[in-house]
Structures are given as C-alpha cells and as structure tokens.
Design a protein that fits this description.
Elements lengths: L1 E10 L2 E11 L4 E5 L6 H8 L7 E6 L2 E2 L5 H6 L2 E4 L11 H7 L12 H7 L1 H5 L10 H13 L5 E4 L8 H16 L3 E5 L3 H7 L2 E6 L2 E7 H6 L1 H8 L2
Parallel strand pairs: 3-8, 3-9, 6-7, 7-8
Antiparallel strand pairs: 1-2, 1-4, 4-5, 9-10
Helix pairs in contact: 3-6
The structure holds adenosine-5'-triphosphate.
C-alpha cells in the first residue's frame, strides 16, 4: 500500500533525512520509532508532500506520489493526524468533522455517526468550539477528522503525546479497534510497550536513516535495540 524508498529530505541546506525506507501493507499497523530529532516527523511530512523530498520515492497504491502537492496526496487516500492536532479552533467539533468529510476514495465507512460511535465524548461536545476542548478531546477530534476523509491509510504523528494516562488508553483502544477493521495505520509514538501489543511491524529511525525493521516479538525480545536506538 505505502512504500517509501531511500527518501531524502532537507530543511534549507540542512539535510535531515538520508535514507528512509519503509512499507505499510493493507490492514497493517506499522510504527515509526526513534529518539527525539531523528527524523520521524520529517518522514511523515515528506510522505504527505508538506516537505518536498530531495531524493527517493514514495509509492501509494501502486502510484508514485513523490513531489505531488499535499492535497493531491491526501486525495489518494492518506489521512494525517498531525503533531499538535491542528484542529480548526473557531469551528465546532461537528464543523471540524464535516469540513473534511469525503468518500472520494471509495469507502463510505466513516460518517459523523460512526465517528461519534468511536468517540462518544465528541458527540457530547459536538457544539463546542475547538478551543474549548481538552488535549485528549482535541486528539480524538483530529483522529475523527482524518477518518472522515475515509482514508486507506491513517498516519498519526505523536498519537498520545502530552495526554493523561486514561486518555492515552482511549486512543490505544481506538487504534486497536481500527486495526480490527483492517484499517492500515502508520503511527509515531513513544510508548513502545503498548504499540508492540497490537502493531504488526516497527521501523526504527536513527539520524535520518531507517536502521531496523521487525515484528513486535523481535522488538521486545532484543533489549539491545532499545538501548541503542530508543532510550534517551
Ligand atoms: N522546520 C525545520 N527547520 C529546520 N530544521 C528542522 C525543522 N524541523 C525539524 N528540524 C530538524 O530536523 C531534525 C529531525 O526532526 P524531526 O522533527 O523530524 O524529528 P522527530 O524524530 O520527529 O523528533 P521529535 O520526536 O522530537 O518530534 C531535527 O534535527 C530537527 O531539529
């Protein structure tokens, strides 16, 4: 479904990504791991066309999407939950959700009711403005908004950063439920232990290079990986 090959990217003259390769298959949950500043967000931004890659290729559903405008990449069926949520603060919850609604990619799975079923709290808050929501509610809204585009692939950058433990658990439950429906997901998060309970594969990024990929079992049984690449 998503295939990234030898991706390179820079901010101005500073090259940040040197060689990122990763795959997400249909129905798979894949994580992007690595310490702060290693290039996870930049990888996501490059996949989405928010940063123009200076080398390498991004294939999605068999087509090369490298270098397309972000809206065109989104239209191919990739839904992004960006770092920092970026919901529309002056719109209500419901307006935020409706603003992105689309069945362009063929699937009509995600409607307002379906999102409210996944996150009942959003239904309670449907008339509240974005600014009136807690961090957890904003993250639920950001996920709901991405789902309303009926994406073939959902990408979450920092899925639970800064959220209280109970809210985190709700987000994990949501992701597990989506996996149960065979939603393809690429997720960045630091909670490796929880991710390993339901993700299929993991990709570790170190200084702009994808240096390891493997299953949850392989990740959890190789303690040296965590020491080398994940501990601060
Ligand atoms: N807009 C920018 N301009 C210049 N350099 C940037 C910019 N954004 C990120 N960088 C640099 O690029 C490198 C990779 O950053 P990136 O945000 O992709 O890392 P990350 O793995 O997502 O880390 P984090 O977990 O802290 O978000 C870092 O050295 C960072 O300082």
């Amino acid at each position: 479904m998503l295939s990234v090959r030898q991706l390179q990217a820079s901010y101005g003259a500073a090259q940040v990504l040197f060689d990122i390769s990763l795959d997400v298959g249909a129905g798979e949950v894949v994580t992007l791991l690595g310490r702060n500043g290693m290039g996870k967000t930049t990888t996501v931004r490059s996949i989405m066309g928010l940063l123009r890659p200076r080398g390498g290729e991004v294939h999605f559903n068999g087509a090369v999407v490298t270098g397309l405008a972000p809206y065109r990449i989104a239209q191919t069926g990739i839904g992004l939950v960006p770092e920092g949520r970026q919901i529309f603060p002056t719109l209500t919850v419901e307006e935020n959700l409706v603003a992105t609604a689309s069945s362009r990619t063929g699937s009509r799975r995600w409607t307002l009711d379906a999102v409210y079923d996944l996150f009942p709290r959003l239904k309670e808050r449907r008339s509240n403005l974005g600014t009136q929501l807690s961090g957890g509610e904003q993250q639920m809204l950001a996920i709901g908004r991405a789902l309303m585009t009926n994406p073939k692939l959902l990408i979450l950058d920092e899925a639970t950063e800064g959220l209280a433990p109970l809210i985190r658990a709700e987000i994990w439950t949501c992701l597990k439920r989506l996996k149960g429906e065979r939603q393809s997901i690429l997720v960045i998060d630091k909670n490796v232990g929880v991710l390993a309970t339901f993700a299929d594969r993991h990709v570790i990024i170190e200084k702009g290079r994808s240096v390891w990929t493997g299953t949850s079992n392989e990740l959890m049984t190789d303690a040296s990986l965590k020491d080398r690449y994940l501990h601060v």
